[in-house]
C-alpha cells in the first residue's frame, strides 16, 4: 500500500510519532563541498514539512554547524509539531581533548551548542553519534538520562556502535531505570546490508526503531554512476557533488555498480526511478521505522519522496534482495541451516529475525 509522510509510526519503544521518511540535513550548507545553499535548503525543508513530514535529522558537526543553524532558522514557527533529532560526540576543537567523545563534558557542551544553534529549549531526539571505545557506557547513559530529566532532551538514541555494546547499554538502562535507547541510526541500503547480521535483529528485539542512513549509498543507487566513475576525479555526472566522497568511503565500486544496475533494470520495468526503488526497498525491511533522505536539490527530494508510492511485490523484493545479498556468517548460517532449525524449533515454524 502506498504510504504518505503523515502515516506516522511509533519510534521504537516510545510513543513518539514520526514520518516513514525523515529529512537528512547534512546537505544543508556548503561547507563540506557538497551541500545546498540557504535558499535551496529552505525549499527542501518547506517541501518536506509541507507534506506532513515531521522528522528532521542533523548533528552538531554537520557542515561545521550550518546544518543546525539553518534548521533552527527554518523550524521557527513549526517548532512544536516537528521532531528535531541531533547528535553529539564527534566535535573536534584543536587543543581541546574533551571537545569530542562520548563523555559527560562533551555531551553537555555539545547539547548547549545544539540548543543555541537550533534556537530551541529542547531536543526531541539526541543520538550518540559514534561510540568512542573509551567512555564507560554508564557515564554515557547517565548523562543522557540527566538531560532527559532536565527537560533538555526528550528521547535518546544511538548510532555507529557495535550491536554487543548497544544491547549491553539497553540492558543497563533498563535495570537502572534510565531512559532507554529508542532509535538506532545505521548505514543501511541495498549496497550496505551488514546491519542485517546483528544490529537490526538487536534493534527489533530491544525496541529501537531502525533509521537507515545513506539509503542511496551516497547517490550510487540513483543509477547515475557508471564504471568510468570508479577511480575518476573531478565533478561527477549530472552535477553530482559526491563522487570523490563516495570513492573515498568505498560506496562507489564495481560491486555496488552491479547492484545499482539491477535496481535500474527493475525500476525501468516498473516505471519508477532507481532512487525510488532503492528507497522503497528500505521501507519494506523489517525493523525500519523511518528512512533518512539525503537530497541536495528540490528535484532530488521530489524523486526520493515518490518512493512512498512504490509498491514492491514479493518477487520484486526477492530480486533486489538477491542482488544485494551478503553472507551473514556465523552463527547465522548455522542457525538458518535446516538440521539445526529442526533441532532448535522442535518442528515449530519460527521467524528467523534477520
Ligand atoms: N549517523 C551517521 O553517522 C550518518 C552518516 C551519514 C548520513 N547520516 C544522515 O543521513 C542523511 C542521508 O545520508 P546521505 O546523504 O548519505 O544519503 P544518500 O541518499 O545515500 O545520499 C545522498 C546524496 O545522493 C545524491 N542524491 C540524492 N537523491 C538523489 C536522486 N534522487 N538522484 C540522484 N542523486 C541523488 C546527492 O548527491 P550529489 O550531490 O552527488 O547529487 C545526495 O547528496 C544525512 O543527511 C544525515 O542526516 C547520518
Which helices and strands, and how do they pair?
Elements lengths: L8 E2 L6 E2 L2 E4 L13 H13 L4 E3 L8 H10 L7 E6 L15 H15 L4 E6 L8 H13 L3 E7 L3 H14 L4 E7 L11 H8 L2 E5 L29 H7 L4 H17 L3 H10 L7 E3 L4 H8 L8 H10 L8 H5 L1 H8 L9
Parallel strand pairs: 3-4, 3-10, 4-5, 5-6, 6-7, 7-8, 8-9
Antiparallel strand pairs: 1-2
Compact summary:
The protein is 39% helix and 13% strand.
What labels would you give this structure?
alpha/beta; binds NADP nicotinamide-adenine-dinucleotide phosphate; 354 residues; 13 helices; globular; oxidoreductase; 8-stranded parallel beta sheet
How does this model look, in words?
The chain is α/β, with parallel strands linked by helices and 354 residues long. It folds into two domains: 9-323, Alpha-Beta Barrel (TIM Barrel); 326-354, no CATH class. It contains 13 helices and ten strands. It has helices spanning 38-50, 66-75, 104-118, 137-149, 163-176, 199-206, 243-249, 254-270, 274-283, 298-305, 314-323, 332-336, 338-345; strands at residues 9-10, 17-18, 21-24, 55-57, 83-88, 123-128, 153-159, 181-187, 209-213, 291-293. The strands form two sheets. An eight-stranded parallel sheet has the order 9-8-7-6-5-4-3-10. The chain has a two-stranded antiparallel sheet with strand order 1-2. Strand 6, helix 4 (137-149) and strand 7 form a beta-alpha-beta unit. Helix 5 runs parallel beside helix 6 and helix 8 crosses helix 9 (274-283). The radius of gyration is 20 Å and the shape is globular. NADP nicotinamide-adenine-dinucleotide phosphate binds at residues 24-27, 34, 57, 159-160, 185, 213-219, 222, 224, 236, 240-242, 275, 292, 294-296, 300, 303-304.
Amino acid at each position: 500500500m502506498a504510504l504518505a509522510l503523515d502515516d506516522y509510526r511509533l519510534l521504537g519503544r516510545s510513543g513518539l510519532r514520526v514520518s516513514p521518511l525523515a529529512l537528512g540535513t547534512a546537505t544543508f550548507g556548503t561547507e563540506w563541498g557538497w551541500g545546498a545553499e540557504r535558499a535551496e535548503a529552505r525549499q527542501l525543508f518547506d517541501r518536506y514539512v509541507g507534506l506532513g513530514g515531521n522528522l528532521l535529522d542533523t548533528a552538531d558537526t554537520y557542515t561545521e554547524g550550518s546544518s543546525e543553524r539553518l534548521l533552527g532558522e527554518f523550524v521557527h514557527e513549526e517548532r512544536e509539531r516537528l521532531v528535531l533529532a541531533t547528535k553529539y560526540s564527534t566535535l573536534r576543537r584543536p587543543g581541546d581533548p574533551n571537545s569530542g567523545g562520548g563523555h559527560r563534558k562533551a555531551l553537555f557542551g555539545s547539547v548547549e551548542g545544539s540548543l543555541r544553534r537550533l534556537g530551541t529549549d529542547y531536543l526531541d531526539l539526541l543520538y550518540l553519534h559514534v561510540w568512542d571505545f573509551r567512555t564507560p557506557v554508564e557515564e554515557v547513559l547517565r548523562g543522557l538520562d540527566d538531560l532527559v530529566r532536565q527537560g533538555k532532551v526528550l528521547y535518546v538514541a544511538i548510532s555507529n556502535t557495535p550491536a554487543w555494546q548497544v544491547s549491553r547499554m539497553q540492558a543497563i538502562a533498563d535495570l537502572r531505570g534510565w531512559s532507554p535507547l529508542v532509535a538506532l541510526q545505521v548505514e543501511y541500503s541495498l549496497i550496505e546490508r551488514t546491519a542485517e547480521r546483528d544490529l537490526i535483529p538487536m534493534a527489533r528485539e530491544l525496541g529501537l526503531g531502525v533509521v537507515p542512513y545513506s539509503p542511496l549509498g551516497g547517490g550510487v543507487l540513483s543509477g547515475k554512476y557508471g564504471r568510468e566513475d570508479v577511480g575518476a576525479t573531478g565533478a561527477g555526472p549530472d552535477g553530482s557533488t559526491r563522487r570523490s566522497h563516495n570513492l573515498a568511503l568505498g560506496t562507489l565500486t564495481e560491486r555496488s555498480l552491479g547492484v545499482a544496475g539491477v535496481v535500474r533494470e527493475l525500476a525501468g520495468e516498473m516505471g519508477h526511478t532507481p532512487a525510488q526503488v532503492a528507497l522503497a526497498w528500505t521501507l519494506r525491511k523489517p525493523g525500519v521505522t523511518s528512512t533518512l533522505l539525503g537530497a541536495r536539490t528540490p528535484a532530488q527530494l521530489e524523486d526520493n519522496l515518490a518512493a512512498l508510492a512504490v509498491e514492491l511485490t514479493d518477487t520484486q523484493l526477492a530480486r533486489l534482495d538477491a542482488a544485494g545479498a551478503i553472507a551473514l556468517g556465523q552463527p547465522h548460517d548455522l542457525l538458518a541451516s535446516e538440521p539445526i532449525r529442526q533441532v532448535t524449533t522442535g518442528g515449530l515454524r519460527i521467524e528467523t529475525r534477520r
